[in-house]
Amino acid sequence: MGGPVGHRRRFGGGRRQPLPRAAGFVGGATPSIIDATAGLGRDAFLLASMGAAVTLIERSPAVHALLAQGLARAAEAGGETAAVVGRMTLLHGDARDLLAGLTADVVLVDPMHPERTKSALVKQEMRLLRGLVGADEDALELMQAALACAAKRVVLKWPLRAEPMPGLQAPSHQILGKTLRFDVFMT
After folding, report:
1. What is the CA radius of gyration of the chain?
2. Of 106, 103, 136, which Cα lies nearest the Cα of 26?
3. 88, 56 Cβ separation under 8 angstroms
4. Number of domains the chain contains
5. What is the C-alpha separation between 47 and 157, in angstroms, rounded?
6. Beta sheet of 88-92, edge-to-edge order
7. Which of 66, 118, 155, 157 could form a disulfide with 110 if both were Cys (CB 3.0 to 4.6 A apart)?
8. Burial of 33 (0-12, 13-18, 19+ CB in 10 A)
9. CATH of the domain at 58
10. pTM for this entry
11. Could you report the per-residue pLDDT of 3-54, keeping only the tens digit for each?
């Protein structure tokens, strides 16, 4: 398993990484997770590699197809990678609609982040992804659906220095990374 995901998995700090901590991987707990904004599936793969059952929801047909192909290739690879992918279930549709029929301990929401005001560009793959899916104008509605669905917590992945999402209640707590923060809403 190579690339950024493999590196993050091998050298990222395991359950001590900000995302697993925010998702509740503490004290030996392994929560069930819904990734309501699957995107490229990196966060979901990391969480599944730690033993979590992860349901991924992607509404963009193009991104869903790419992710389905990637998961199929990973499953065909066999070994540990196939075992990780075996804990992942990919759904196509709008998470705002699908969440009502699903249950999990944790719902992860990683909407398109607000446009940067700095001159430095975001990574090219994120620019391409934004070009495919556009801005998430309905991120607040998605957060409200996630808060109604999650059994224990909702985790919002958000830029470290960005203003809070307009209209959203204050999080229970935050876990800070180098460039991102995870706003945790206990339900």
Report:
1. 16
2. 106
3. yes
4. 1
5. 14
6. 88-92, 54-58, 33-35, 106-109, 153-159, 180-186, 173-176
7. 157
8. buried
9. 3.40.50.150
10. 0.85
11. 655 555 555 567 889 999 999 999 899 999 999 999 889 999 999 999 999 9
pLDDT tens digit string along 97-149?
999 999 999 999 999 866 555 554 445 565 565 555 556 689 999 999 999 99
Tokens of 102: 């699903």
Q: Measured between alpha carbons, how far is 75 from 32 in angstroms, rounded to an integer?
A: 20
| Tokens standing for residue 146 | 């996630």
Beta-bridge partners for 92: 58
* Domain encompassing residue 81: 3-186
One-letter-per-residue 3-state SS of the chain? CCHHHHHHHHHCCHHHCHHHHHHCCCCCCCCCEEECCCCCCHHHHHHHHCCCCEEEEECCHHHHHHHHHHHHHHHHHCHHHHHHHCCEEEEECCHHHHHHHCCCCEEEECCCCCCCCCCCCCCHHHHHHHHHHCCCCCHHHHHHHHHHHCCCEEEEEEECCCCCCCCCCCCCEEEECCCEEEEEEEC
Q: What is the pLDDT of residue 112?
A: 81
pLDDT of residue 107: 98
pLDDT in tens, 66-94: 999 999 999 999 999 999 999 999 999 99
